[in-house]
Structure formats: structure tokens, C-alpha cells
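Researcher: Here's the sequence for the chain we discussed earlier.
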Amino acid sequence: MNQELLRIVDNIARDKNIDKESVFMDLESAMVSAAKKHFGNPDLDIAVKIDRSSGDISALKEGQPIDVRQLGRISAQTAKQVMIQKIRADERSSIYSEYIERKGEIITGTAVRYEGGTLIVNLENRTEAIMPKSEQISGQNHHPGEKIRSLILDVRETSSQVKVILSRTHPDFIRRLFELEVPEVAEGIIEIKAMAREAGYRTKIAMLSNDSKVDAVGACVGVRGSRIKNIVDELGGEKIDIVRWNESSQNLIANALMPAKVSQVALCFELGGATVVVDDDQLSLAIGKHGQNVRLAARLTEWDIDILTPDEYNAEIERLSNGLKGLPEVDDTFVDKLIALGVISVFDLAEIGVQPLVKEIGITEELARQIVARAEEEAKKQAAEPAVPTAAESLLSKDSSGKKSERPEKLERMDIAEQI
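Model: Thanks. This is the structure I predict for it:
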């Protein structure tokens, strides 16, 4: 019997991944509860000790030895119920401790079933995790028995169970996939600097090589695209744009808008906006389908991006110059200084206010107030004129096929701020 007890403890500890000492303590506590129930007094001083090496059981009631095996069937049932409860509690604690330490890792599980859109996934035969609909890649369906890789997004412990929440839409899922598929990323030779994702459709990821001998893009793509193909296949065909990181925001924005070729980037640090000029034949590439390319580029770089053609850019500069005519010290040189600040329209000038003009251009505060006041007047006039959509807006409107058009990022600063 004693050796059988040791075998039972060993099996429970191994099957439930519970420390053996915890199982012994649970057994001792269950026997104490059973004895107190047998004698009908919960306040009795009862102690039970199991020898960890031999399995011998010793029990004392008010300091006097008793035989716990003579307590009867009802007491044995009580001990069994207490034991089950305590082992379940220990198992929950073990599961929680294991998976909370693995939070943020990729894990492979088996799809079990759908419950109201939520996917139930069996994890290593230890517990069932959930993947809410919001964390599933749109358009992907998983069949019972299918192996599925996902990110451990969160682990929550309740009184009755441990909830492991999985995700395949979180940007860190792609981050971990790159670490698995590209050794240079896992080793820190290549660093992921920024990422923007629309799960199931497209991801832009900015990479920096910390070794001059290693090309970040080439290493991530792999020989004949083998590495990136594995990631794309795992994501069900989601497009991955690998962007070269650059400390220069102008260069980074140009890289982020690839495959479009950018002619010019003007940055306005005061407004956090970037005006990007692209040739007409590059406009559709820069905007992307449903505005996706410019939207992801804006999130990746953390700049509001406005796409203009050369003609539109020159027209804005001309309207800015004409709107300020007649003011003292305002000439072509002054307009060039405004352009250097990233100000290319009267709307920009009205928004940045007085102090940047005083600080960056070096004019008096009084003159700056006059210039801003004129810009505000011109902005009101232009706002009252019939709206003429830019080429980018027209392209988006056409691309939306009758749906609400997605305007360039600079015109939707509030929306972008909410999304980032």
C-alpha cells in the first residue's frame, strides 16, 4: 500500500505537472479533513504526516496515534473530494505559472472547435486556450485537429480556471515569426525598429542591421525568398514589406512608401506632418489599394503623410506665396524658409502659429503675428472655395468604389492618432 501511494503521488505530479511535495501536502490536508469529519469536530487537533521516502502514514488526534485507514467509507469520500479540489487548484496554479512566463511567445496548439466565433485551442494537452474573433486573421478558418501557431497574448487566473488568450493578429506575432525564421533577428544582428500591420492584408516592418556585413532586407528575405515565404505562408498570404530603417525621417518615409519612388519629402516638425511629392505614374503605388500603403507608412514612421503630385505641390507653394504678398520682409527667400520648415500652404502656416516663425526664421514677433493673421484670412477664403480633390483623394475615391473615400493622412490627423 505504501509503495502504491508513492506511485500514485508520482503519477499525479507527472501528469498534472505539479510539484510532488504539493501532492503530499494535499493528501495530508485531505486526510486531516476526513478525520475531523469522522469525529464530528472541526476544532480537533489532528495532524497527518506521510513519509516521503517510504509512504508510511502517521496520524495524531490530540497527540494520540490513530489509524486513518479505519475512519470509514464516508471519511474516505470526504478525503477524495478534498484531494480532487486541492489538486485542481494546484494544477491551475501550475498552468498559470507556466503560461504567464511564456506570455509573448509563439506556441503550437490544436484547433478544437468554434464557440460563437471564438476558437478553442488545445495547448500541449494541458489546457484549452481561447482565440477571440478579434485575434483571428480575417478570412482564415481552422478545422478541428489542425495544428495552429499563435502568440500567447495574455494569461488570466480565475477562481475556477486559467484563461490563456491567443492571438494571430497582434504585431508581435509577426515579430516572433521573424525571430523563428531569421536567426540574425533572434541573435540581435538585425533589429526590428518599427512595425505597422493590418492583419490578413499587409504588414510593413522596418529593419536595421547592426553588422555592416549583413544586409537586413536580404537576410530576412532569404535565398530565393525562402525565409519570407515561410512567414507569408503561415499568415495565409499576407503581404510583408521589409523596409530599411533610417534615422533620417525623410529617408525612412521614402523607404516606407516603397514600391513607389518618392521625388521629395518635406517635414513639418511643428505639425508632425510630411508632404511627399511623387510623380503621377507613382501615385497609385504610393497610395496603395484602398489607401493601405500610405496608411501603413504613416503608422510605421509616426508621421502624418500627405501625398501630392509635382503640379499640386507647386500650386500650393504658389498660393502660399501669393497669399502673403504685400507683407514686409516676405519675398521668395522668406517663402523658401517656410518650405524648409515643411510649411507649404496657408493652412500649415496658420496652424503652426507665431513662435516657430520667431524661433526658426528669426523675424520679430509682431511681423510673425501679421503673417499668421494673413495666413488665417487666406485659409478661410480657400476653405470657402469649392473643394477640388487632390489626385490622391480622387484615386482613393475611385478605389473605394462608392464607399466612403479614405483621404490622405494629413487631412485625417485625428483619425490616424486614434489608430496608431
